[in-house]
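Standup notes, structure subgroup. Blocker cleared on the zinc ion input:
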Amino acid sequence: MSIDYLHDKWYHTYMKTLKFKLYSHKRNKYLKASINAAGVIYNHCIALHKRYYRRWGKHLNCAKLQAHIAKLRKRKEFWQSVGSQAVQDICQRIEKAYQLFFKHHKKGVRPPNFKKVKKYKSFTLKQAGYKFLGGNRVKIGSRVYQYWNSTEVEGKVKTLTIKRTPLGELFLVVVVDSIDEPGIRLTTGKIAGFDFGLKTFLTCSDGTTIVSPQFFKQSLNVIKKANRHHSQKLKGSSNRERARKNLVRAHEDISNRRTDWFWKLALSLTNRFDVLCFETLNLKGMKRLWGRKISDLAFQDFLNILEWIAKKKGKLVVYIDQWYPSSKTCSCCGHVIDPLDLSVREWRCPSCQSINGRDDNASKNIQSVGASMVGLGNVRQAMPAIAV
Ligand SMILES: [Zn+2]
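Run returned:
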């Protein structure tokens, strides 16, 4: 299949997210205080929203809230440890959460609520309140901090976020607008479709499969033990704090091993194919179908990594509509059969008599829909182009 002309057609403009760890330093206490203050302000905003609604029966609009908070901030010294931009960001985030709630409350979305200040994680600055000084130094507020600069910060900085992990470490998360990258760089001339699964992590339309290592299951005993130790320790004791850190580390260890595996897998897949097609994830539906196990599989994390690598290497990741009946459509003739029970692993097409393995058939369909979306191959099922 020739995909030469995609060279000119697909140009990526994208935002890049870079993450750096800050050097641990006494000075970091100021950032931590800012995060705490951000948490206090957040809770104050939530209280105002609730009070306003009780009193007037209306939603407190974002501009009004921002003006009020800005005025209050002038009188409260502690609040001033958070930059005015970060304060605006808090108001906007709450507004977004409310809009989401108004739109989707029937689907069970809850309004934003109070958060424990101790667990509050971050604050975000937009255009002002920080400056990159070159090398590994950044000025935030009036102080200079250093970080482990694994890559250069290139392009226009959109936002800067200071994040606090459960272990109390601080990270710098920088979102930059990246310059256009060249479009697809063809190396293999191949396109493939992939179907996510429970035991088989990915089924590829070329007939190969990738089995999930199930990192969480492997470490289940370690986690159980760490959990037990934690709950046995006296609340508020230093032993309990140590046990909590151990537990967090055990979870981080799992996620590190999984992430590592994801990177390797993404590298090998982008070596093998130029265009990679997936179904848009429907995590809620998958959870209903498969239960809690799905969080152990972390499909979305994998896709994020794959997209990142694909962009770097000039490959294309394509998503097809989640409602496309990929497992019920015959990949030979396009015939669509009645609802398939999950236990049915194989079926015979009543129209063309070919035998379709469930996952294999789905991945082939995903490939052909993906191909039609980027303007390749047989356009048997024309689908609207989304999220390319
Ligand atoms: Zn058929």
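Discussed briefly. The longest strand covers residues 156-164.
Next: hand off to the docking folks.
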